[in-house]
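hey
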């Protein structure tokens, strides 16, 4: 015989769970995410002012944001910001850089090779693998279709 039904359990969890300030969280995510995008656009204008073309400037913005996110993750700033800003830090480039560097930083006590070196690929390894496989499949399909056109 069950002591608690599912409905009683849900009510109990609801009573003990802290209330989430949804509006505040959304506003912080919007502001921080917007600031990161603003920073990226500012960097783009800066790189263009150095005489770089649009494609090269865009590439440098991406590389700069990845570097800054990785650096801030390594020194502990990114996690503090993410606790306050929530989803605002999950922009694709900055969030992926953080997700790649975080496991490596957690394993730094195991050394640079067996710790940092092996854990850095925990997240990006599958992305690289399946991205490469998907590009091969796409290339083969494209090649097969181009034979008939």
């Amino acid at each position: 015989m069950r002591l608690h039904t599912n409905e009683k359990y849900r009510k109990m969890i609801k009573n003990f769970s802290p209330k989430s300030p949804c509006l505040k969280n959304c506003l912080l995510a919007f502001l921080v995410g917007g600031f990161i995008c603003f920073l990226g656009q500012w960097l783009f204008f800066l790189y263009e002012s150095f005489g770089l073309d649009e494609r090269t400037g865009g590439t440098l913005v991406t590389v700069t944001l990845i570097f800054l996110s990785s650096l801030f993750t390594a020194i502990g700033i990114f996690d503090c910001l993410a606790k306050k800003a929530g989803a605002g830090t999950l922009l694709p480039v900055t969030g992926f850089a953080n997700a790649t560097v975080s496991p490596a930083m957690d394993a730094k006590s195991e050394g640079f090779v067996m710790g940092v070196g092996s854990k850095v690929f925990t997240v990006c390894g599958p992305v690289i693998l399946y991205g490469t496989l998907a590009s091969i499949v796409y290339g083969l399909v494209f090649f097969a279709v181009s034979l008939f056109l």
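The two ends are 68 Å apart (CA to CA). The mean pLDDT is 85.
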